[in-house]
Design goal:
about 80 residues, mainly alpha
């Protein structure tokens, strides 16, 4: 007898196999086009929410910021 978790795991595995097969059937140009559309859609969604976009920018800049104390500690 399968528990609900096994059933979900099998469904996810089946879904992944179908997606993988579909992805492998595409040409490189088709894959790049799909990725470009996906990124454009993601940016549109992100920019449609001013609070979410502001949070993204703050987090992104925080990750890229240079930690001055870490630079002085190395010298």
């Amino acid at each position: 007898m399968l528990c609900a978790m096994d059933d979900i795991a099998e469904q996810l595995a089946r879904r992944d196999r179908v997606r993988r097969h579909y992805s492998q059937s595409l040409t490189p140009e088709q894959r790049l086009d799909a990725m470009s559309r996906h990124q454009a859609r993601a940016w549109a969604i992100l920019r449609s929410n001013p609070d979410g976009y502001a949070h993204f920018i703050r987090r992104n800049m925080k990750v890229r910021a240079i930690d001055v104390t870490a630079l002085h500690a190395k010298q």
